[in-house]
């Protein structure tokens, strides 16, 4: 199973996302969606699991949870914006969600892919919307296969080449 990982769109869905997410089976959006229409556009690619972030409006907050838990290909996954932890780190997220095997978060706009306690994959795809904090926009891809550790990569969106 191939997952598209996105966060912090803040109302902007770059055209490069459609190329980056070509062929994904499911999309995880870690909050600060911006406009509800973003989720509809992503749904045209694949099913979406999304959470609200600290800048999302009341409409999105009533439609989306703060934390989503799901199981895909046998992996227990948590999706959260992470702002409820202040400035989230892989260690603080692992402590907050000890049963998760994969944790996807946003908020910091800093792309990150790491392991915690050898078996927990933590990914922040970075901010996919307007460039903020002098960081380039990016998304992530996670590939899941039962019985083997997840494989992931971060993809910059500016100058994206799907090859």
Structural description of this entry:
- The protein starts with a strand and ends in a 7-residue tail after the last strand.
- The longest helix is centred in the first third of the chain and has 8 residues, at 36-43.
- It has one domain: Purple Acid Phosphatase, chain A, domain 2.
- It has 163 residues and is an alpha/beta fold.
- The model has no long low-confidence stretch (mean pLDDT 92).
- It is globular and about 35 Å long.
- It has four helices and ten strands, in the order E-H-E-H-E-H-E-E-H-E-E-E-E-E.
- The strands form two sheets. It has a five-stranded mixed sheet with strand order 3-2-1-9-10, with helices on one face. The protein has a five-stranded mixed sheet with strand order 4-5-6-8-7, with helices on one face.
- The protein has helices at 16-20, 36-43, 58-63, 90-96, and strands spanning 2-6, 26-29, 48-50, 67-72, 75-80, 102-104, 112-116, 120-124, 138-145, 148-156.
Describe what is shown at a glance.
The chain is α/β, with parallel strands linked by helices. The protein is built from four helices and ten strands, in the order βαβαβαββαβββββ.
């Amino acid at each position: 199973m191939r997952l598209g990982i996105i966060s912090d769109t803040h109302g902007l869905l770059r055209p490069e996302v459609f190329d980056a997410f070509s062929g994904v089976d499911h999309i995880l959006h870690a909050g600060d969606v911006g406009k509800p229409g973003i989720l509809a556009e992503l749904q045209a690619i694949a099913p979406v699991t999304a959470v609200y972030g600290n800048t999302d409006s009341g409409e999105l907050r009533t439609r989306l949870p703060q934390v989503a838990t799901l199981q895909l290909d046998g992996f227990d996954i948590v999706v959260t914006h992470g702002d409820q932890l202040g400035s989230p780190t892989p260690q603080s997220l692992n402590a907050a969600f000890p049963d998760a095997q994969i944790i996807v978060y946003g908020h910091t706009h800093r792309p990150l892919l790491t392991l915690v306690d050898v078996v927990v994959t933590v990914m922040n795809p970075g901010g996919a919307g307007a460039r903020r904090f002098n960081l380039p926009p990016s998304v992530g891809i996670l590939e899941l296969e039962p019985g083997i550790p997840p494989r992931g990569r971060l993809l910059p969106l500016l100058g994206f080449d799907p090859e």
